[in-house]
Each structure stands twice: as structure tokens, then as C-alpha cells.
């Protein structure tokens, strides 16, 4: 562990902190329909979209209508992406002549991108045409991220409003999030990436001759535009197979740093938006602080593990002074790779700049735990905030039990309906992660996809289903998905996305209909250090009680075996 590494982590956090309040204020203005500096340019476009689609922006929706609009839109998106992939061989912008995508893979990919998971059971440059990458996948990067922002805004309105049946209009929220937030920021980032050397072209592959006289085909394409929204929308789906470890997706340390900041930027800004919309900015900073505590715990653990190197290699006299460099790019090193792994699994973004399977057991366990906690540490765009609110409800419920008082959060009483919906949303994730893993490691189609045996093979399976249910999309890099995995992972992605969103919206609808109770001497304050510690503790304890046995079978026993010289 070096001072330069800690300085990198510190500067990264300070940059995210500096962006949180400005972005939060801008998000509030956009989602509340206020005038911004972009309104003169984009306002007419927004109004034209409403006229063309028949949306009446002044008409708001109940939680059930909001959820129905979201689910209907996602069904249409799934059909569109699936059709593009299945018909790829007959569509234009296919200079490499890629064939149509197999049914199980097309299903898995369509589900993956509409749920903002971006799990990829394929190599992008060898499977997808330019049209599929842009019209099929990149479009979903925008609208799936915008849907997450929309749901977060609707849930915040549920706590901010009193005696209301409405929580906003899904179509309006999604249009505004896409038009005013994601598109402008993506344009700026795309231009920066092109300047840094990331390709943005419709030209076909280039054939180069190496020093050895071998001909090498170098894939190109419209990479920069996909890279921008891939990070900004916490999507993570790479244009190339090795994702952000590829020099055309992530050429140098500067692009690596900007990519990490863009992963966290909107998620951090949403915490400030939360505080502003509920009328107490301190509430937003309390949420951000709890997330930050968990972030530093995770990044410290993974950096420590990777910086110490593999003791089994040291026994053979292999230099480990730089730490564990297996599976990492030398242009990034251990610190930037460890930070990237923590950021991408904190934020529900499946992008990787190093192969997580090559991390040491405890180093690879940290990204796994980040996802198991529901990725509420900043989290995916929108999803991290409403996931955190679910744990905040559990925390205040426990506090209420301790003092014998009806729990309250932001002046709203938490009653039986809200607790039932919260538990439904929270428990569906471990059901998928652990249940599907248990089946996969005992049936032949499940075992056939694993490249390792023993505890490492178990971790490959556990990581895959955890990544799917948490809507992360990163892979342990050793699993080769077959039809069994494509289908079951797709089911896991849908459960992880929609079985959380719908109960969360139901909670928002219930909260919006309630009165705001004035604070009293018995009210538990939710903007103090005590609340920050309580909710962080609840997240860790719930995660530990749920997943420790599975972790013991995988990375923990692998770490103990490694100390005795046994590698898998």
C-alpha cells in the first residue's frame, strides 16, 4: 500500500464530494420542472416529445399507475432489443458481417440491458454489429438509467408530500432525466474520450502487421459514445470483451479516473436531491455520509488485500513488491484497479478495468460483498438511493422497537404495510443470489460453465448470480455462460430489478398519502451521526447474517487454503 495510492483514493473522493451538491441542485430543478440553463435549447424538444407521444405533463400518477407505466415501457424495450439482436444479420451497420444472436443469448442480453444490469455473455467486438451496439444497447443504457432516476424521484416525493395520491408522472420524469441530465453529460464525456484517443467511427476493423510479421485484426467502432453513458448511467456494458481493461475503452490513468468519477457522480448527486426535496438538506448529507463510511471500509479492504501479493508466489521467490498484479493492467496498477473494483461494485456498474477472478480471495470477496449488500453504497443511478431508503426504514423500525415507539422517517409513520413491502424488496435479492447458486453447483448444466473447481469454482457461480440479482453485470471472468446460465441469470436480473422497484413504489404511494407528524422529544433524528452509524450497522449486520455461510464456502476457505499453499 503506497502513499500515491491513498492520495489517488482521497482525490477521487474529494472530486465526488465537490460534485454532489451542484448535481443535486440541478437534478432537483430538472425533475421538478424548473427552468435551467438548458431550458431555452431543450425545452422545445421536451414539449415536442410530449405532443408526439400524447403525454400530458401536468397529469400525475398514483404509485400503481407509475409502476404500470414503467413495466409497460420495459416490455416494449425488451421486445425491441430482442428483435434487433435476432435480426442482426439482416440489418445495416454491420461491417464485420456479424450473424444473428442465438435465442438464449438474445434473451439474456435484452433482459440485461433493460434492467440496467449489462451482464454480457458475449464478446462485444465478435458478436454485436454497430447497429446493435447503438440502437439496441446504447439506447437502453440511457433509458434504463433514466428509469432509475425517475423511480428515485417518485419515492422521494412519497416522503416529501402529504395526503397526496400522486407521486409524479413516469413519462415526464424519464424524458427529463434523459434529455437534461444524461444526454448533455454524455456528449461532454464523449468528446473528452475522443480527445483521449477512444475511437468513434463507423469504419470496419483495421488489419495491422506485428513485428513478428503476424496479421492482427483490430476492432473499431462507435466506442466513445457508448463508453460515456456506460459509466454515467452505471450500466457497465463494454463495447469490447475485456471492458475498461481494453486500451480503446480506457487508454490511460486520466480516462480511468474520469470514468470512476462519472460512475459515482449522479448517484452521489441524488443523495443531495433527496435532502433538498424533503426540505432538509442535512438528510441528504446523512445518507451520503453513511454510504461514504461503507465505501471507505470496502476500498481499504480490497486495496490491502491486493497490495500484499500472493504468499504462495512469494514462496517460489517471485517478486511481489508491487502487490498482486495478476489480471491487472500495468498502466493502472494495484491502487487504481482496487479503487475501480470497489467503485464499480458499489455503484451497480459492471465495468471492470481488471479481472476480478484474478484478485486474491479476500480482495475478490469485497466486490462480492458490495453487491450482496444491495449495492446501496452510492449504488446504481436511482437504484442506490431507493435501496438505501429501504434499509433506512429497517433502521428506524429497529430504533422504534428499542424505545417502544411507532417508528417514523422524515415525519411519516412507518407501519405494517411499509415494513412488509420493505422486507419483500430486501429478501428477494438473497433468495436469487443463494437459491440459484445452490442449484447451479449441483446440476450438470450449471457445473459445465465453471472454469475452476473447489471454493474458487463456487465463488464463480455465487458471483454470477449475485451480480445478476444486484443488477451489477460484472463477471468473475471464469464463467462461460451456456443456455442454462443465460436463462437463469435473466430471471435473476428481472427479479433483482422489478421485485425491488414495485414494492419501493408501493411504499412511496403509502407515504405520500400520510400526514407529516411534527417532531417531538421522542422523535429519532435521522440527520445525525447516530443515524448514520445505525443504518450502516444495519446494512452490514443484515448482509453478514445472510451471506456469511456462503462466503465461508467460497473466498474465506480459499484464502485459508492459499495460506497453506493450495491454489485453485
From TrEMBL:
Compartment annotation: Cell membrane
Keywords from the named record: Cell membrane, Hydrolase, Ion transport, Membrane, Potassium, Potassium transport, Transmembrane, Transmembrane helix, Transport
Keyword set includes Ribosomal protein: no
Pfam families given in the database record: KdpA
Family: Belongs to the KdpA family.
Subunit architecture: The system is composed of three essential subunits: KdpA, KdpB and KdpC.
Protein name, UniProt field: Potassium-transporting ATPase potassium-binding subunit
Upper lineage: Bacteria, Pseudomonadati, Pseudomonadota, Alphaproteobacteria, Acetobacterales
